Automatic annotation (TrEMBL):
It comes from the Bacteria. SUPFAM superfamilies: Clavaminate synthase-like. Residues 110-208 form the Fe2OG dioxygenase domain. InterPro entries: AlkB-like (IPR027450), AlkB-like_sf (IPR037151), ALKBH3 (IPR032854), Oxoglu/Fe-dep_dioxygenase_dom (IPR005123). Signal peptide: none annotated. This is DNA-N1-methyladenine dioxygenase. One of its GO terms (biological process) is DNA alkylation repair. Keywords: Dioxygenase, Oxidoreductase. Pfam families: 2OG-FeII_Oxy_2. It comes from Micromonospora nigra. GO terms for molecular function: dioxygenase activity.
Length: 210
């Protein structure tokens, strides 16, 4: 086979190292109350390798939390990448840079930290909450989530009551919660009795937001 005839198969995305699609295709969903969600399915291509690396190389930690006077297991594994800590896969560094560039005018500061959650199966979850530790308690900000592994829905509901919205988060998908979202809405990843494999979420935030 000539070199020229061989070229097209070399473009097969499933064969290439992980890379990012264009952010131009991101779709904004205004939620009201100054909150919005941006959604871009399959932003990261070649995500199998990223998931493998995340499951293997991140020093996952189980945590316990006090709830109503009792200590309970946090139902997911965690790891926090503070400013300056190298990320476990280079495509995540590229993703953070691309997000910083894409949202520069609107956000006015870079994405810096990376929080990681590992949902081992359908029993792992995150309960309703807003990311309101730090500046996000009283100022608009953004939290960008890249999801790897088994699809799980991200649910959002307005604080004070109202119907919830559901964003399916699949392998390589991007979701960005922006504006007042952390203060005026809550989000959750519910448990499921369906058989689901592991999921890792990577949350990029500006400094001082958690
Ligand atoms: O797993 C996710 O996509 C969401 C995680 C989350 O909401 C958080 O860690 O604050
Ligand atoms: Fe959150």
């Amino acid at each position: 086979m000539s070199q020229a005839a061989y070229q097209p198969s070399m473009l097969d995305l499933t064969d290439t190292a992980p890379c990012l699609g264009p952010l131009g295709g991101v779709r904004r969903h205004p939620l009201g109350r100054g909150a919005w969600v941006d959604h871009l399915p399959a932003w990261v291509r070649g995500s199998d390798e990223v998931l493998d690396v995340l499951l293997r190389d991140v020093p996952w930690r189980a945590e316990r939390r006090t709830m109503y006077d009792t200590e309970v297991d946090v139902p997911r594994l965690l790891c926090w990448y503070a400013d300056g800590r190298p990320l476990p896969h280079p495509v995540l560094t590229t993703a953070r840079e691309a997000l910083t560039r894409h949202y520069a005018a609107e956000l006015g500061e870079p994405f810096v930290t990376a929080g990681m959650c590992h949902y081992r199966d359908g029993r792992d979850s995150v309960a309703w909450h807003g990311d309101t530790q730090g500046r996000s308690a009283h100022a608009d900000t953004m939290v960008a989530i890249v999801s790897f592994g088994s699809p799980r829905p991200l649910l959002l509901r307005p604080r004070g009551g109202g119907a919830s919205l559901r964003f399916p988060l699949g392998h390589g998908d991007l979701v960005v919660m922006g504006g007042s979202c952390q203060r005026t809405w809550e989000h959750a990843i519910p448990k499921t009795s369906r058989p689901v494999g592991p999921r890792v979420s990577v949350q990029f935030r500006p400094v001082g937001v958690a």
